[in-house]
Fold this sequence. Notes:
alpha+beta
Amino acid sequence: MPESADAAVAEILVRYRTPGERIAALGRSAELTYGVDPRTDEEVEITTAAAYLQAAKQGWRAELASRAAGNAPKRPGWEAFQQEMDAFAPEDPRTEEVWFLQESQGYQVTGRNRDELAALGAAREQVPADDPQQLLGFTYQRDTMYAIRPEGAISRHVGTFDATAPAERWTGGVVRVQADGEELRLRLDAVAADGALRGSVVEGPVSNRGLAVGSAVELRRDANGVLTIDSGARREQLAEWTGSFETAGYHQGRTRLNEGAGMHVPGAGTPEARNRGGRYPTDDAMFEQIRARFRNVDDPEHGYARTLGPARTPLNVEATGWEIVVPAYRRLGGDALFFEAEHAERAAYRPELPVPATVDVENPNWFNEVSNALPDRFVGGRSSSATLYMTAATMLVHEGKLSQDEASELMAFTAADMVVSGEHSLPECLAPMTMAASASQPWQGTELNLAKETPALTTWMQLVGPEAKQGMRAETQTALLKVLENPAPDPKLVRNLAMVLKATEPAERSPGDEQLAHAFRAGLNPVAAKPQQVAAATGERPRTTAVVRDAGRDR
């Protein structure tokens, strides 16, 4: 960040003495601008995501209290997703052994660390009922691995289309036909009494045998296995062909979503294409290094300069009073696995995510090239988890199990969780999500399908609903007042919280904002009321979000 921004904060802290005067001055400061410096932008994104998670936790506690009082449940998006996945994918286990305990890919530690490693694995099983992060994270492996386990529940949503396969159950889905190096895709509208399949051509990165999207087509199979493609104006017969069925949810949530993000292209999943450098050994030395760093509360850069990658430290939000804790077990993956690939000639920093139409996703290195224009923002590389959650959510939307608002809330939540946990930066989550949204319904009709270059934080905020934004703003106001009451407040935290307030500022001032402004003018120190907690917290609760990986995929 240019010195003018930090200098502006320093000047405000010296010039103004009361918290109200300082907040007003911070709000007026033109120097506190997002999109100028990569490090400061990352700090602001982490702080904004932390505000979201804090508001979500307080909202969940209020919801639990409401349910305990006998009121009807109001499901937040993360709970709706988790509940519907329980019913939607009963074949897939909710939990499995945490990845770093698995012999095939986990930490190869000796006796001096094995007991502690086992204890860290056991800690994730203790799920506090009032912590949304931990509740959703408990089923992390099921909810992400669902999309890539062909033998799992997702297998029910694909089938073989051949000379004899029944087609009626696939009505409303998509039939794909491959022959002569070409592919035709049809939305299956009906199956006639004589067995003919009737539908219309759908979009995709395929030739569709020269037929225009939306064209009506009829497919007929004869006793010899010959397939006839009849579009009215043209009639083809194929003696050698293969085919498959996909439900509408699978086609949009897996096929089209992958194609939008270029994940169908060979080589797109390699570490280099995902902008990841070489992997550190998961041995005793790494385990002990992470443990020492995590426990070093006296690190002068605690929580800021090293928030991501192999040199990261725990995020310092304790001064805000927020209950955001990233436990030691959550760090065992990212610290060992994630750091940025080399870029020979870095471009000048630009905070915007690209318009999907300007990106050639057939180039398997598209993500690496995009990250070159956002230096120091892609430390962990492209996030698979973001798009894997998106796949499951999209399928639930198409099955009528999840609303679009609930799906958007889920994606806002999971991105915030990964950012605060230090596993990925916000651009790492949002870049593949926006690319996927350009090709997949229902996301094509949302603001996540970017029509112009947009900064990552602005894009993420479009997923956040009005009530959540109000909660974030209230939590940030309270936190900033608390920080400013300190005789020597952390200027970086002051700057970041002030920028979160700017990011959550409503188009029209709410009664709460007017009340706060009045209190400032009166020289008071208002503290926003928080929802009543169901039970008092005792001590530091272990964070239990499950982070599980298979041998071919990193989070």
